[in-house]
Amino acid sequence: MTNLIQHGPNEVELDLAGFSITQIEEALAEVLNLKPNLLCYVNGVLVIDRKNFVLECGATVSFWRAFGVKGSGRLHSILERLVIAIEENNRQIQRIADHVNPPKRASVTSSYVAERLGRSVRWIGEMARNGQIPKSCICPGSGDGNYWRFWKDRIDQWIEER
């Protein structure tokens, strides 16, 4: 499956899955006459982090001149900056939300810790209750009548350091 790459009236279909937007821009600079500082949209969504954004199969990539360039007016420039600021703000809010209430894959159960240490789940619960497992490894709201949950990256690091 190919990707549709657009810049103004120019279009090209290529298989670019797995490449970053930065790599695509560099490779297609001459072919599509790409200028620096173009806005890049993938499937209609503005890409902020071009270096780390990896293209998937079938995606449509569009490069657009920023509104604030050459005589397009101050209002468009302000609107463009506002859109970018809102998208960056949304990304930051998602990072905070993930920190406060992480996705399930970021935390593990006592069974995982017990298996890693070669001990019983009951023994892990006792260790957590007695403070032998650092509090920084324990997810908020676990224990005290609930199942024990641990931050995977922190509990793995603690186990390695033991």
Overall pLDDT score: 80
Unreliable residue runs: 68-73
Number of helices: 5
Distance between the termini: 48 Å
Q: What class, by secondary structure content?
A: alpha+beta
Oligomer: single chain
Total domain modules: 3
Can you tell me the overall shape?
elongated
Largest sheet properties: 5 strands, mixed
Architecture overview:
This protein has 162 residues and is α+β, with helices and mostly antiparallel strands. It has three domains: 1-65, Beta-grasp domain (Ubiquitin-like (UB roll)); 67-101, no CATH class; 105-161, Arc Repressor Mutant, subunit A (Orthogonal Bundle). Helices cover 38% and strands 17% of the residues. The strands form two sheets. Strands 2-1-5-3-4 form a five-stranded mixed β-sheet, with no helix packed on it. A two-stranded antiparallel ribbon has the order 6-7. A hairpin with a 2-residue loop joins strand 1 and strand 2. Helix 3 (110-117) crosses helix 4.
Provide a compact summary of the structure.
It contains five helices and seven strands, in the order E-E-H-E-E-E-H-E-H-H-E-H.
Features:
alpha+beta, two-stranded antiparallel sheet, HTH_17, Ubiquitin-like (UB roll), 38% helix, Helix-turn-helix domain-containing protein, Arc Repressor Mutant, subunit A, 5-stranded mixed sheet
Helix and strand topology:
Layout: E1 3-7, E2 10-14, H1 21-28, E3 39-42, E4 45-46, E5 60-64, H2 74-100, E6 107-109, H3 110-117, H4 121-129, E7 149-151, H5 152-161
Parallel strand pairs: 1-5
Antiparallel strand pairs: 1-2, 3-4, 3-5, 6-7
Helix pairs in contact: 3-4
